[in-house]
Structure formats: C-alpha cells, structure tokens
Amino acid sequence: MVRKPDGTFNFDYILDAFATTDKEESPSKPFIISLDKIKLKDIGITFNDQQSRNDIQVYLKSFDTRVQTFDLQNNKYAVNDIKLDGLKLKLKQDLIKEVSEKVEKKVDSLNSKKPMQLGLKGIKLTNFNIDYGDDNTRTFAKVMFKELSTKVNKLDLQNNAYDVGNVFLSGADINANLYLPAKNAKEPESPKTRDQQKALALLLGKLVLNDVKVAYNNTAIAPTRQGMDFNHLNFYKLNLEVKDFKMQDNTFAGSVNSAEIQEARGLNIQKFNTDFVYNQKEAYLKDLYLQTPKTVLQDEVVLNYNSIEQLSSNLGAVQVSANIEDSKIGFSDILNLVPTLRNTAPFNKYPNAIVNVDANVKGSVNDLLINKLKVSGLDQLRVAASGRVKNAMNPNNLYYDLRIAELSSSARTIFNLVPKNTIPSNISLPSQMSIKGTAKGTTKVVNANLNLYSTLGNASVDANLDMRRKNRELYTVKANLQGLQIGKIIQNKDIGPISAQIYAKGESFDFKNANADLRGNVASAVYKGYRYQNMNLTGKIRRGVYDVILNSKDPNANLFLTASGVYNEKNPTVKINGNINKLDLNKLGFYKDPMILAGKIDGDFKNLDPDNLNGYLNLKDFAISDTKEIYPIQEMNLKASSTNDSTNIIFNSQIADVELRGKYKLTQIFGALSNTVNQYYQFQKPGKMQKIQGGQFFTFNAKIKNDDLIRKFVPELKSFETINLNGNYDADSQKIEIDGQIRRCSTVKIPLKMRRLK
Predict the structure, then answer these.
(1) How many angstroms separate the Cα of 242 from the Cα of each of 172, 245, 257, 276, 290?
(2) pLDDT tens per residue, range 618-673
(3) Contact of 391 with 366, CB cutoff 8 Å
(4) Residues 628, 634, 637, CA angle at the centre, nearest 5°?
(5) Which end of the chain, N or C, is less packed with Cβ atoms under 10 Å?
(6) How confident is the model at residue 498 (pLDDT cuts 50, 70, 90)?
(7) Which residue has the higher pLDDT, 756 or 408?
(8) pLDDT class for 28, splitting at 50, 70, 90?
C-alpha cells in the first residue's frame, strides 16, 4: 500500500469502481460479524506513506486462533488460544500516534456505552523481530524473542483487574533508546484522572524470564562515570522465576524462586530467592538468600507499622524483626548501586572490603533488643555484642544497655574510620586493642565496666558518670592499669609503663568547683628510665581547697609528703611538709653523678605565680651523699615576697646567702639579663628575643661562704676565702653593675688573687 504525497492511495481506483450515489433511506441494522477459525500463513504487508513518512513493513509466518465471541453491539469478545509465529515488524512512525488517538477515541466511545468484555485463554508468540523508530520523539526500540507465552484466567477491563496463570519469556533481546530530559518536578496528576482510573489489580501465578537481555538508554542524559547508571542499563543476563505474585489493594507480594542478573556496570546477582510482602501494615523478606561474588545475605527482615505514612513520619515506632545469619556484604556491591558513597567513610578507605555480619534484633526502632550482633572483615575491626538500645531516633534521649563480648581494632583502622583531626596529632593509639565488658546509660549518664587489652598495656575501668548538670557532674571511677604505656600514648618519651590502681569519687570536673576524693596505689611507673615502685597517693578537694598525701616506699625515692592549698588560676597556694628519707637523683635520672638527698621539708606559699611569688621554703636536717661520704647540711631557707611596688627574694644557706630586691618578674628578668651579657660574652647562642615589660630592675647582695662543704664537691680547690658580691641591674637600660671582694680563690692548676672586682 502506498499513500501518495497528495493523500490518495494506490488502490483508490478500486474503491471508486464500487462507489454509489444512492442515498441511505433508513437506518442500518446493527453490523454483525461472525468469526470462527482464523488461520493465516506467510502474510506480508507494506505501507509506504509518502505524505507523512510513516512506513510499516509487516510479515508473519503464521497466525492461528478461534473466535468464540465477537459481539460489537454488546462490546463483548472472546477467543481461544492465540498463536502467532515469525512476526517481523519494522515501523518508522508518526502514524501510530495518529492511529492510536483515533482508536482510543473509538474504544472510549464504545466503553462509555457498554464496558468491553474480553475473554482470552492463552497467547503464544514465537520468533518475533520488531524494529521501531520515531524521529519526532527520538524513541527507538528493537525487540526480538524466541517465545512469549501466557495463560490467562480472567481479564476484567472495567475494574482494571487481571488474573494471569503464567507468563513465559525466552530468548529475548530488547534494546530501547528513549529521549527523556530531566524535569525539575513531576506534574501532579489531576484529581479527575485519578478518580476515573481504578487501581490496577494483578494476580500472576508464575513469571519466568529465560535467557533475556535488556538494554535501555536515556539519550537525553550523559552516562555517569562510576557505578550503575539507571539512565543507561545493559542487562546482558536475566533469568528470573517469580510465583504467586499479587498486586492488589496496595499489596505487593510473591515469591522469587530464582534469579540470575548481570549488568554491564558490575551488578552480578548469582542467586536470589525470597518470599516478599509490602502492604499497608507490613513489609518483609523471608527465606531470603542473595548472593553475588562478594555478598551473601540470608534469612529474614520483617517490618510492622500502623500505616505506610508511619515509615517516614514516625520511624521510631516501626516494629523490626531481623535475623541475618552468616552473611557478608561486599562494599563494592554497595558502591556499584550508590557510587556517591565513594568519598564517605568507611567506603573511601575500604572500597573493596567484605564485611561479615551475623545479627538478630527484635523490637521497635526506638526500643530495639539486640540478641546478637557480630561484625568483622572491615580491616581489623571486630564487634561482638548484645543488649538493648532505646530512642535511637532521638539522640538526646538515647539509652543503651550493652554487653560487649569483643570490640577490637587496630590503630590504622580507627584512624581510617573516624573523621580527620578527631584524634589529636599528639595522641598515639595502640597498634592493636580490644575492649570487653558492659556499658549502660545515656549520653549524659554512663555506667561502664570495661577491660582494655592492647599492645600498649592493659586496663580495667569501672565507672559511674552523671553529666546531666554542668560543673556539677557526679562520678565514681575505679581503674586498674597494668603496664599501660601512657608515655607512648601521649608521645612523651620520659614516661614509660604504669601499673596502678586508682579510685576517684566526687562531684564536678572543674577543679575549682570539685568536691572529690582520690586514692592511688602505684605498683610501678617508669619515668626517665627509672621504675618507681610502691607509691601511695591519697587526696581530696573541696571547692578548690585540696589536701594530698604522698607515701613512697620506693628504694630510691623513699619519702612522705603532705601538700595542701587552694587551686586558683590567678593565685594558687600550696603548703608542703614532710620527710625525704632517700632521694637518689642519679638513679632517678635527674643528675649524672651519684647524689643522694635526705632531710625535712617545710614550705608555705600564698601565691605560686612566679611573677608574684609569696611564701617560704625551709629545708632542715638535710644531708647529701655521693655514695662514698655523707655531707650534713645546715638549714636552708628561701623567702619570697611580692607587692605592687616591690619584689624580694632572700636565700640563706650554709654555703651562700643571696638577696634580690627590686621590681621584677622572674619569668622575664633573667632572660633580659642573659641578653645583656650575650652582647659582650657569647656564653650561649642568642635565642629569640623575649618581650620584656618595662620598669624592671633589681639590686643584689651575695655571699659565697668559706665552708668545707664546697671543698667536698670541688676537691681541686686549694685555697678559698668568703666572696662578697653586690650590684644592680636595670632591664630598660640593659645596664649591670657589680662590686665584688674576692680575697683568695685558687685551684691546684689556677692560682687566683684578687682583692676587688668592679
């Protein structure tokens, strides 16, 4: 058939030959068509539309059916099985739109009078090859299949309800290219249209897809670079069997008996079966088994809710029952489906991880009972826990009661999982660590009994914390440290492993507001290479007023000291008293040569600020030993006083007396003095100039006494007489004056005689 550019057809002359001019005198009777068996073989139709350029080529090898009912008047039709083989259809279209619009109007006019009734038993279509193209809408499709067959139980077009026994599609290759630009918002469906259309109801006994390939491309949108692109899909293997599928009354249900799905971007479902339901009150996957090369998910997940709206409006009230047995999740599968997660932890560091999951949970989202939770496979992270979590959707009211059988990880794993800079740069974590115990409470109240095992030592902590009131926090903590290498954790080389028992109970973490008691027993602690032993510390603080007692039985640090005072950031005080039975500075790492101290100490400072020092320190009955001899020392006294107008420091001892009077700050004045001397004598390399507050000065008087103790420590000293020095220093002018009397001071090698030094 040909339609010419002027709209005439190549068979018009035949119609003209049978045309008549007689007028119809009376209404015609209803048009009756009687059909029974229909068999067609080797039928070919070609339509060349030269006017609108819509071309159709159709060929079918055979068509076989039997018509039971064909009643146009009552709009009722029924046929037995339809068999169609070898259809080849090539369509280059704009005609279909025109025809479909006309047919739709005609069908609608018939339906408005009498709803269509259609009876159909089965359809079997074989060896189809369809090629469709529409340049106007940029829609192109090619469909080929070996067989598409179905058995129909009931078709109710009026109520939009269909009962289909089975659908079988085999050997199909479907390729569709559509041009669908992205829209900002979907146009709302008009209420009139929504009311006119009844909800689709579909019952499908069995759906089988065998050796099916499907390719879809939305040519309006460019392909993405990574992961599945839902605008460009290429399923090169699709085998599926679904039974007892139901889509009716807002219910979707059925059973997936088997599925094999492979897509060009990496989706590879090797096995999949489950019973599924989604309706107004419930959703579940039961008897679930999903397998890819890297993922296995199995068993069941069940959700119960009052309405579908509750899933978004009140998720916390949704009931959950999930049992995930011996499963594993491949992160690469997740990233294939959601590639935007690639730069999000943990996927950014472990894109190829396979996480093992074994879990059983039950309850509501806001009151979840965790019977079992095991996670492993994310680098060195391992989790084994059980318990209960409440108010997960409201962190401010979160409650947890957990039993932690294992929470282990490596330092590398933790640094990879937590956000950058969460852990300070001056903190080092153990290369391997594991935590076991219990934890119960909220974000503000914590009851924990935890044990830490790590490559940097072990620790156990039993803690009760109540942080609901700021600066009025309550706490009771018992800690047992076992070889914990705190120095490596805080990156301080002087501090080594510590084994100790610590107990603290009180109120407030703010030192000036705290009301607390502390006890500590240090079994061993390494500092500067020395291992301290048997040290006991007790203390208490009452709103900034503290008392501390240190009782050390260490063989090289045997002492008993008490200290008390008031903690104040601007004006701290301390009072100290006690006995030093033995302090071996050499073995403790504070002095390179043998030196042991012993004696009594007594001090009281009303202000410990070095720039406003006020108080005294007395050392009594002291003795020094070089392990060969013991050198008794008479009393030593240090007295400091500071006011707005003056600063005085007086030191008296058996060896020397020194007095500094003036107005100065200890943290600045000696730095200024060092800079002044360095202008003339480079005793040390010049450092960064310290900013010095103006108006600082002092006068000094010093007496170095002729005492045998000096000769004990300077055996080369041959002769010596008391040296008197006095002078002054002004930091503003950088001027220093010294007036000294040195009568005799000589060693074996260097004799020195001088009466005066200016």
Answers:
(1) 18, 7, 6, 11, 15
(2) 999 889 888 888 888 888 999 999 998 999 999 999 889 999 999 999 988 888 88
(3) yes
(4) 125
(5) C
(6) very high
(7) 408
(8) low
Q: How far is CA 516 from the centre of its chain?
A: 36
- Check: CB of residue 264 under 8 Å from CB of residue 234: yes
> How many CA within 13 A on the CB side of residue 639?
7
Contacts of 59 (CB under 8 A, 6+ apart): 42, 43, 44, 45, 86, 87, 88, 89
Query: What is the rounded distance in angstroms from the CA atom of residue 467 to the CA atom of residue 478?
Result: 17
Backbone angles phi, psi at 665, to 5 degrees: -115, 125
755 — pLDDT class (breaks 50, 70, 90): low
Dist. CA 520–CA 504, nearest whole Å: 9
Type of residue found at 247: M
Q: Residue 188: its pLDDT value, please?
A: 52
Mean pLDDT value of segment 176-188? 74
Strands 117-120, 76-79: parallel, antiparallel or unpaired by DSSP? parallel
Question: Are 734 and 672 within 8 A, CB to CB?
Answer: yes
Question: Are the C-beta atoms of 402 and 385 separated by less than 8 Å?
Answer: yes
> What amino acid is encoded at 700 in this protein?
F
Element (H, E) at 506: strand 495-507
- How far is the CA of 641 from the CAs of 493, 601, 728, in angstroms? 37, 19, 19
How far is 260 from 159, CA to CA, in rounded Å?
A: 35
On whether the CB atoms of residues 265 and 223 are closer than 8 A, the answer is no
| Residue showing tokens 């805080």 | 490
Amino acid of residue 373: L
Contacts of 496 (CB under 8 A, 6+ apart): 485, 487, 525, 526, 527, 529, 531
* Interacting residues of 196 by C-beta distance below 8 A, sequence separation 6+: none
Residue 277 identity (one-letter amino acid) = V
Q: Does the pLDDT of residue 54 top 50, yes or no?
A: yes
Distance CA 613, CA 639 (A): 9
Mean pLDDT for the chain overall: 88
Q: Where are the alpha helices (DSSP H) in 469-510?
A: 486-489
**Secondary structure letter of residue 293 according to DSSP:** S
Which three-class secondary structure state does DSSP give residue 360? strand
d(CA 508, CA 503): 15
pLDDT at 22: 61
SS3 track for 378-402: ECCEEEEEEEEEECCCCHHHCEEEE
Q: Rounded CA gap, 130 and 87, in Å?
A: 8
Cβ contacts of 26 within 8 Å, gap of 6 or more? none
Q: For residue 354, what are the contacts with CB-CB under 8 A and spacing of at least 6?
A: 294, 295, 328, 329, 330, 331, 377
- CA–CA distances in Å: residue 34 to residues 72, 74, 115, 116, 525: 10, 14, 21, 18, 107
